[in-house]
Amino acid sequence: MAYPPPQSREQDYPAAPSPARLVVLISGSGTNLQALIEACADPAYGARIVAVGADRDAIAGLERAEAAGIPTFVHRVKDFPERTDWDAQLTGTTAGYAPDLVVSAGFMKILGGDFMRRFEGRIVNTHPALLPSFPGAHGVKDALAYGVKVTGCTVHLVDEGVDTGPIIAQGVVEVRDADYEDDGEALHERIKTVERGLLVEAVGRLAREGHRVQGRRVLFST
Ligand code: GRF
Question: Ligand 1, closest atom to CA 126?
Fold first, then answer.
């Protein structure tokens, strides 16, 4: 079997009028969000964050959004009878902000069918490993457990799989012997340093230039 499965899809996603509207989804400390907030302060970046959404409250990322004067919303899966109800609410609230791009920046929930259909091709995720290796919630620890010598981060479009969407950009980080001593914490911090720059660069280009999905490839439009 060919890997990855061949895809013949071709689709254009033209740039939105500047500044592009971003909704950023988070679950934790929000350092990727912070990097986007700082990038958006420059009008030349071509994007602005119109809302920040989370799947939990009392997280540092929400405080960062509030400090920057950005509207926030929280939808917790456990507050809904079914996961599909949560997905419908997340989709509705996000759609209410009319985003041109949705950025999943450390959002630790799998987006559902409603959300995917509504924002298909315009959802960006960042993952702390070199996909397709080590998808899922433990990318850093899984890479370390495997004994890799290099790992890194991947910015990609979201599809219905877990970390399987077309890749936009990747960054490489070397693994050090000392990384085995703290369960990958220092390694994750080094990855996040690269990841923030990669995400800011990728989102800015998507916003300013638009993009085309050609099979597994994401091409910027200019
Ligand atoms: C990032 O490494 C992201 O890829 C992973 O969780 C981390 C989130 O960091 N899923 P932060 O909340 O942006 O600081």
Answer: 4
Number of neighbours of residue 48 by Cβ within 10 angstroms: 17
Residue among 75, 127, 156, 188 flagged as catalytic: 127
How much distance in Å is there from the Cα of 219 to the middle of ligand 1?
A: 25
Give the number of the atom of ligand 1 that is nearest the alpha carbon of residue 191.
2
Superfamily of domain 16-119: Formyl transferase, N-terminal domain (3.40.50.170)
Q: Which residues pair with 125 in a beta bridge?
A: 104, 156
Fold of 126-222: Rossmann fold (3.40.50)
Is 127 an annotated catalytic residue? yes
CA 208 to chain centre: 18
**Closest alpha carbon to 39 in 218, 168, 207:** 207
- pTM, two decimals, is 0.96
Same fold across 16-119 and 126-222? yes
Rounded to whole angstroms, the Cα distance separating 104 from 209 reads 20
pLDDT tens profile 137-150:
999 999 999 999 99
